[in-house]
Amino acid sequence: MEDLKELSRIAEAATPGPWEKYDLPVAVANSNFTIHAPNAVGVPTWTTALPPEIASTLKAEDAEFVATFDPPTVLALLSRLEQAEQAVARVSEYHRREEVRDVFGDHQVRCAGCFEWWPCTTARALDGDR
Ligand SMILES: [Zn+2]
After folding, report:
1. In a structure prediction context, what are the per-residue pLDDT tens digits for the chain, which is 130 residues long?
2. Whole domain around residue 116: which residue ranges?
């Protein structure tokens, strides 16, 4: 998977959305739909000019998918992913492995955050275990 910053760069460089799937009144290049994206605020939309060899094989669901995942949507998803990764990192820093000696001098491995035996419930959940 590409680095998230590279995905953000690609989305930011594309024509801003919202993009829309547009049903054409007549088929053009064997396709009854296309994708519209605004050229700029207040400027009429432009239509993607798909070559016939692509337009003839593009499914309506594909056009809907591309229009739905337009640059603002991708950037919002990437932002939410980054926030979620940062939250996981904060929780992982709190619930970390810690080696200690108990009052009898015995070696113990516990969670530094919640003091459960290591791995604690939270650490197991973060690793995908229940
Ligand atoms: Zn813990």
Report:
1. 458 888 888 888 877 777 777 777 766 666 666 776 665 444 444 455 555 555 556 667 777 777 788 888 999 999 999 999 999 999 999 999 999 998 999 999 999 999 999 999 999 999 987 6
2. 95-126
The model's pTM is 0.66
Residues with CB under 5 A from ligand 1 (ion): 95, 111, 113-114, 120, 122
Do you find a cis peptide bond into 44, omega within 30 degrees of 0? Answer: no
Q: Is residue 87 part of a domain?
A: no
Looking at the fold, whether 64 and 99 belong to one and the same domain comes out as: no
Backbone dihedral region for residue 28 (phi beyond 0: left; psi -120 to 50: alpha; all else: beta): beta
- Residue linked to tokens 């290591």: 118
99 and 57, same structural domain?
no
Report if residue 101 sits inside a domain. Answer: yes
Expressed in angstroms and rounded, the spacing between residue 123 Cα and the centre of ligand 1 is 6
